[in-house]
Specification:
- By secondary structure, the protein is mostly helical.
- The chain is built from 4 helices and no strands.
- α2 runs antiparallel to α3.
Length: about 90
């Protein structure tokens, strides 16, 4: 199915661009002696989000229905945009 391949290609492209960019941004925080802690916390929070996100979304989906779940998910995409917009340029 063409839609499946296109979706998978877009997902792979976004993952290959976003993950290194976010890691680079996070690596600029903290002193030299704190880099391991900062990067460790970042990676740990990412893993926690990947584990808890689908569980929370599934619960929301079954409790409220698809319209509310997808609307909240779509509106939630504004948060990363605002966070990136507020980042200082390097």
């Amino acid at each position: 199915n063409l839609n499946s391949f296109l979706s998978l290609a877009l997902y792979a492209l976004s993952t290959s661009v976003v993950v290194p960019c976010m890691t680079t941004l996070v690596s600029h925080y903290g002193n030299v002696s704190q880099k391991g802690i900062v990067m460790g916390v970042y990676r740990s929070l990412g893993a926690l989000g990947r584990a808890m996100g689908p569980i929370a979304a599934s619960i929301l989906y079954w409790m409220t229905g698809p319209e509310v779940c997808y609307s909240i998910g779509g509106l939630g995409l504004i948060i990363p945009y605002l966070m990136l917009k507020s980042c200082k340029t390097i």
